[in-house]
Amino acid sequence: MKLRAELFLISSLFFTTSGLGCGDHEQIIVSPSPPADLELRADTEAHAAARDGERIGEVLRGVARRSDGNTDWRVQLEEGTCYWFGYAGDAGVEKFSMYIWDPKDHRLDSARGRPPQGVFTHCAEQSGIYRLQGKVADGAGHYAVVVYKTKGPEKKVVVAPAPTVEKKSDVDLAAIIEKKAAQSAVGAKRSGDFVDGTAETSELYTAMEAGKCYWIIGAGEPGKVKKLFLYLWDPKSHRVTENKSESETTMVGHCAKESGMYKYQLKVDSGSGAYKAAIYVK
């Protein structure tokens, strides 16, 4: 009787363990490359939804090795324009989700647990670089996103009382930045325009190319901005450098090892007032 009971227990454990190899715990094998028709299917979805639209940019691609695997992309959107993100997943993608954040990284909208092929829409209310995310909510596999744009709805013009005009500072912050660049970033040329800020913190993005060196220089109003801090993150959101300046001017330098969209933040740690920043490259 004891031997029979032990054999029954071993047999029960064998069948229970064998059952775990199937069903919910079955591993999904993802092919090394996406199917050839993936971009076409994503394009068809976007074009069908925005028949008068114009396709923009390159196809956005991603792959998830498991459920909840996701990819972030940085996309430039213009105020007053609507964008149609047509997406398609391969045979392993069962449900798909999309999310979008504004240039200050506040989440604006989402479409969760949708079929593996469809369209996600957003009409931009401000110009800037937005964060778009595709996520395989269920399943695993390759996916692609194609973007079309159309003119947004007309806005009603609201006439507001004339704001109180504050007296601008007589200090030429741009000249201060140019002088510092000539001293500290010899041979570098300014990339783009100066950016202005008055808030306690400003988060901005800039594209950097691998093999080039960049200097970000900021200057605040003397006597008003006491301490101006500067931080820099790489395209994978890893902080690469910072400068917690004890004065109204600040600067960081970085030689990019990978191309992509970098985020930098200016922070008035002490005092308040206007400040400017510019980027120089060599």
CATH class of the largest domain: Mainly Beta
C-alpha geometry? globular
Query: Share of helix among residues?
Result: 10-25%
CATH topology term of the largest domain? Jelly Rolls
- The structure class reads mainly beta
Round the mean pLDDT to the nearest integer and report it: 86
Residue ranges: pLDDT <50 for 5 or more in a row?
Answer: 1-25
- SSE string, helices as H and strands as E: HHEEEEEEEEHEEEEEEEE
Short description:
The chain has 282 residues and is mostly beta strands. The chain has three helices and 16 strands.
Provide structural commentary.
The structure is a single chain. The protein is mainly beta and 282 residues long. It has 2 domains: 38-151, Jelly Rolls (Sandwich), CATH 2.60.120; 173-281, Jelly Rolls (Sandwich). 15% of the residues lie in helices and 50% in strands. The protein is built from 3 helices and 16 strands. It has helices at 2-19, 38-49, 173-184, and strands spanning 54-64, 70-77, 81-89, 93-101, 107-114, 117-123, 128-139, 141-151, 189-197, 201-208, 213-220, 225-233, 239-244, 249-255, 260-271, 275-281. The protein has a 4-stranded antiparallel beta sheet. Strands 2-7-4-5 form a 4-stranded antiparallel beta sheet, with no helix packed on it. Strands 9-16-11-14 form a 4-stranded antiparallel beta sheet, with helices on one face. A hairpin with a 5-residue loop joins strand 12 and strand 13 (239-244). The radius of gyration is 26 Å and the shape is globular. The relative contact order is 0.15.
